[in-house]
Amino acid sequence: MNPILVYADSLSWGIVPGTRERLAFEKRWPGMMEAELHRQSFKVRVIEDCLNGRRTCVDDPSKPGRNGLIGIEQRIEVNSPLSIVIVFLGTNDFQSVHQIDARQSAKGLASIVSAIRRAPIEPGMPVPEILLVAPPKIQSVACEIAKKFEGAEQKAVGLADAVKDIADEMKCEFFDAATVTKTSNVDGVHLDAEQHRTLGHAISARVIRLLERT
């Protein structure tokens, strides 16, 4: 069995754009990925750790616990042994309360990668492979989150390239979600059910590459 931890935010939690509802597991991309890997006879178990509003390494000034760097080592310890950790973060770094650009956000991911690799796992347990996923580009933000993400499109320019640079530097696998899907036309940030389906199948191909390597 190969446990896979998805460490992410609301794009993976499965919030339905324009609502506060949540897609069922089998309709979220981690569930789609698990089903596809099972279909191809890979023995995996997907563990979701997806928190709405999670950043890379900055705090939400009004909601505690949204700094992705805080507690990541304990999450690795709790769920070990792990074969793969998929880190899919960045979008919330560009909320209007932060003055962060793409390179700074990617450096936050680098800090998370380092924390994963130094987590206090038990002797003999593997340090997991890491897949960094760059989120799709933020579109014109609508609905109730418009003010929260004011200016996000401009601040996030170049994020995928910055994340790829970090992945190359730290020898992680990389996937740019924008190569297979955009964000929802409903709110410009999250993913529709069909976009979850597309992303789940695409990321499963990268996970297969990692599983075959290990």
TrEMBL record:
Pfam families: Lipase_GDSL_2. Residues 9-197 form the SGNH hydrolase-type esterase domain. SUPFAM superfamilies: SGNH hydrolase. The keyword Nucleotide-binding does not apply. GO terms for molecular function: hydrolase activity, acting on ester bonds. The keyword Amino-acid biosynthesis does not apply. It comes from the Bacteria. Keywords: Hydrolase. This is GDSL-like Lipase/Acylhydrolase. It comes from Rubripirellula amarantea.
